[in-house]
């Protein structure tokens, strides 16, 4: 996004680096079907990361994958496009980043992205009817800034059956420009700083060879909330004591780098319906306040609810998650065991009766939208190829578990309401016998997973711990900005696909303004 827009301005030379594959291979464009689903479960499309063992999730390491290559996670995600709520941006408390400030950027990028909702189906209308029975209201426009109590059809970034990722919409059309250089199959190692703490080059590896790209004006980090802080720390910018402990010479002590990690953990309830679900995508998003007494603003939702047709990606999600749950992380990265497990899952889904059964399964995903828990990203070593130590610290704040339990109870009320009765069937996960708060908490600890909405590790703002200012400039470094979800001070209640693109859009405007003097 940022590179594509900057290149179009003509006075910039932009050079993003993708981690794997050629541009076409690294950015799958198909919205659904086996081509995309196959890529989602392949290592070349999704980076196989794991968290450190989670104390409040049964001490298990969690799969924390993200998209790799051009378009990043936007090339393999569910294409959900939601701006967030006015309350979300008010909580950022950063001048120039309030709701009225970001809406113009959203509107401009949406004209290029061409976002739209999918057509209603009998099943999705039944879901809305059930949700209305328990207190939700149908919202025709989920992007007008008021989400509390709303349920409606989210917009998605697609055209026909092709996804419109940031890469497809904003970079691919300009690949023939002489001032846009795309390096794929390249792995960024570090930023090279001179004695004045000015970025003079980017060091990267390509084809086994160490190379450098000179920085003449400014460098912009857009590696995401799990990789941008890692690159800063590898470059000597971060918590001084942490850097020294990992053998990195500190260039500038910036303690907030890698702090404030936030994510949206989720848990899924599954039901075996009376007939096949008639849609192929998660089309609906709902927002509720599970804990009315929390200290969030009164107009702020804290949980999200997504109706999930299993036929859309149940097989692929199983292929992604079961190996992550059953194969130890060390063996996952170094052996063929994950492929063996995936092959077995593929065979299990092959019989026709299994496919027909899956078509009748639907789920209700409960997402913790405003977590109180905060995690960290830390260097494991000075080796840029080694994964960082990622600790999302799910449920380390007890209030998060309370919100999830309340959200699960509400989801069950939706599933049992009259509107879904024509579809309704038995709850297969966790099962009707899981009723008490203690039993539901145990279920959450056992089954919680990421929603891939990592944010906050290079926090923007003026408060202690902030890494970038309102212009996205890294404190203590003369010509470096960060433009991705890592700068988000507090994660919005909704998905991060749209906010991340908005940040990239505004970053390009900031670069242009700085160049104009």
From TrEMBL:
Residue ranges annotated for the Glucose-methanol-choline oxidoreductase N-terminal domain, each copy included: 224-238
In its UniProt record, a GO molecular function of this protein is:
flavin adenine dinucleotide binding
- Renumbered to this chain, the Low complexity biased-composition regions fall at 13-35
Q: Region entry Disordered: which residue ranges?
A: 13-38
Highest taxon, organism lineage: Bacteria
Residues that bind substrate: 304
Sequence similarity: Belongs to the GMC oxidoreductase family.
Record's protein name: GMC family oxidoreductase N-terminal domain-containing protein
From which organism does this entry originate?
Answer: Nannocystis pusilla
